[in-house]
Amino acid sequence: MFVLFTHQCRWFMPVNVGLTFLIGGILGWILVKLLKPNLKLEGLLIASCSAGNMGNLPIVIVPAICDEKGGPFGRSDVCHNSALSYASFSMALGGIFIWTHTYQTMKSKSLRYKALETAENVKIPNKDLDANAETLLLKRENNENTVLEVPTSDYIGDTENQSIEEQDQSSVSENRKESSWYITIEVLRHFVAELLSPPAIATFFGFLFGTVAWLRNLIVGEGAPFAVIQDTLVLLGNGTIPCITLLLGGNLTQGMKSSSVKPLTLISIIIARFLVLPVIGFLIVKAAANFGLLPLDPLFQYVLVMQYAMPPAMNISTMAQLFDVGNEECAVILLWTYVAAAIALTSWSTFLMSVLS
Predict the structure, then answer these.
(1) pTM of this prediction?
(2) What's the rounded Cα separation, in Å, for the pair 157 and 352?
(3) Longest dimension (CA), the chain
(4) What is the per-residue pLDDT for 27?
């Protein structure tokens, strides 16, 4: 399946998926600065703008277009195979970015919110806090008013003070070096941990067996010795999409509950997700096509632009439940964004088929 991406500029899809997360994250960051929501909503807002549903929706929508009679993308059988390959590749790439970039965003914001909540729960009463503050100010004033008299003729004492100061400066520089080295090690450790996550490992083996011919021939094809693995995966995959759709419906029903999400926040996410981001994506794809970076395949360009117009990923709800922060708010955001997606996806799909056909 993934052999289609080893030639004819199919390498642009990973770059395109990365751009959707980058530009969407910037839009989410701008909305956070403008709207100034609760800390509990900051991670949800950025994740909703950056992480799109590149899994089950493209697999359902893109091949279905090829089954329509008189479709703009050529023969039905050829279009269906290409569409399934494009959608599968999009799902694999989206899973990597979601469980690395989006996961870290949700995790960091959740930890900050829980730390702030814990600090507020154990806060000292105001009277005690004011009294402690006054005593600290008095001690600081007394220390500032006391003057230490050092004999100017005591040259030995001066040299000792200078040596102590030099030692302090050297220890500070060593601590800075150790802290920078510690930060580097921590970043590398987190990066390796994310690469060893189940979605990343599954994607790696999918790419490996899809691009290496002799490995692919072991499980794909009529005469493959391990064809039962392929049949099992197809059977599981055919049942996974309906199950994911049912889970999506179950998560959306929770969005009817009351939450702290303001209507302005929902409208801003919808505009950023379904208007601003797809317009930017359309311009990027058209510019890449004009510079010869894309193949002469309108279906491929259609999938690239639609990656910018997808509603927020369902895994955001899973992460909210995992970190136990903003479950109801996430359900509200998913509910209204998916309601708007019914109109937005239809409009963008109609527009792209008319432009790219």
Answers:
(1) 0.71
(2) 81
(3) 101
(4) 93
Give the pLDDT score at 154: 47
**Position 276 confidence tier, pLDDT thresholds 50, 70, 90:** very high
DSSP 3-state assignment of 312?
strand
Share of the chain above pLDDT 70, in %: 69
What sign does the CA torsion over 72, 73, 79, 82 have?
negative
Choice between 262 and 154, residue whose per-residue pLDDT is larger = 262
Contact predicate 257/328, CB 8 Å? yes
**What are the CA-CA distances from residue 270 to residues 31, 187, 284, 328, 338 (Å)?**
12, 33, 20, 18, 9
CA separation for the pair 239, 234 (Å, rounded): 9
Token digits for 335? 């509910």
Given the structure tokens 């010795």, which residue do they identify?
225
At residue 326, the 3 state secondary structure works out as: coil
Count of positions (residues) in the chain: 357
| Per-residue DSSP letter, 309 | S
Quote the CA–CA distance of 73 and 75 in Å, as a whole number. 7
SS3 assignment, position 52? strand
φ/ψ bin of 38: left (φ > 0), alpha (ψ from -120 to 50), beta (otherwise): beta
